[in-house]
């Protein structure tokens, strides 16, 4: 059975089981041609959300193999905020590896932000009058390459200051900041799901960097949503509890920064948790 991505309205994409083409089954009327999920995916694979993208966005170009710089058709503010949070996710897992003394393992997570994400958000930085920070990214990666802990600490603090300023500038233009943060979190979780799926092959974790990317993105989403959780709870306490429960379940998939040989869960339960979080989006309008 193949899984096809079916657009339900404007805001949600659902994967439903459908017979393969050779069996002659017609596509449902709302199916968008040219948008098809991978054969073994299941449940909900997050789509771009209402008001911020069109269905065509998920079929657009990607910045790299895992598409970290992609989804160019997202609303500029969402595309930018997504990029910032993915950079933070890389830095988060990179910092874990440095604390474990694994400088070489940390290196990809300090190179990816500049090599695979920054170029896609550079124009949005100008739009929001945010100072460029490519030099700060490069300086940080150089300290990691040199394994210089003191220089790393200083460079990381300088970059964190730039990222915080960018976040503030983007959120200041959003009427519903809580909803916007939640939307961004979902976009990052979509990327985490892609990374996690790439990490697994035949029931084993075969790509350590992809596993770590997914871990960093999930942990960053947890941090990001923790900043919005008081507002989410005030608006809908049950939604906040459901979101936190699913986040805790997602975090349990990543018991340590270095992966186990076999995944705690496969991609199906991962996507199920993400879908449960997405279902709460409507409660925050």
UniProtKB/TrEMBL annotation:
Question: In this entry, which stretches build a coiled coil?
Answer: 149-202
Q: Where is this region: Disordered?
A: 49-72
Q: Which domain of life is it from?
A: Bacteria
Any keyword Signal?
Answer: yes
Q: Which UniProt keywords apply?
A: Coiled coil, Signal
The residues forming the signal peptide are: 1-31
Keyword Signal listed? The answer is yes
Would you tell me the protein name for this molecule?
Uncharacterized protein
Organism of this sequence: Microvirga ossetica
């Amino acid at each position: 059975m193949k899984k096809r991505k079916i657009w339900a309205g404007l805001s949600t994409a659902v994967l439903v089981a459908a017979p393969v083409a050779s069996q002659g089954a017609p596509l449902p009327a709302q199916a968008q041609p040219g948008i098809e999920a991978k054969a073994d995916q299941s449940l909900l694979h997050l789509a771009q959300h209402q008001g911020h993208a069109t269905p065509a966005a998920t079929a657009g170009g990607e910045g790299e193999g895992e598409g970290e710089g992609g989804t160019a058709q997202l609303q500029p503010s969402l595309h930018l905020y997504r990029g910032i949070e993915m950079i933070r996710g890389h830095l988060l897992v990179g910092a874990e590896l440095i604390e474990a003394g694994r400088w070489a393992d940390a290196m990809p997570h300090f190179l990816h932000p500049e090599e695979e994400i920054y170029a896609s958000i550079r124009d949005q930085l100008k739009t929001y009058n945010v100072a460029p920070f490519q030099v700060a990214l490069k300086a940080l990666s150089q300290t990691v390459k040199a394994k210089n802990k003191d220089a790393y600490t200083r460079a990381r603090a300088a970059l964190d200051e730039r990222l915080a300023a960018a976040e503030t500038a983007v959120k200041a233009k959003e009427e519903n900041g809580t909803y916007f943060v939640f939307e961004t979190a979902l976009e990052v979780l979509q990327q985490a799901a892609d990374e996690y799926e790439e990490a697994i092959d035949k029931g084993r974790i075969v790509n350590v960097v992809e596993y770590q990317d997914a871990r960093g993105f999930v942990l960053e989403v947890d941090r990001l949503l923790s900043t919005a959780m008081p507002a989410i709870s005030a608006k809908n306490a049950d939604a906040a509890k459901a979101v936190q429960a699913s986040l805790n379940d997602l975090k349990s998939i990543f018991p340590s920064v270095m992966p186990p040989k076999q995944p705690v869960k496969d991609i199906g339960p991962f996507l199920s948790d993400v879908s449960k979080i997405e279902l709460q989006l409507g409660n925050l309008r």
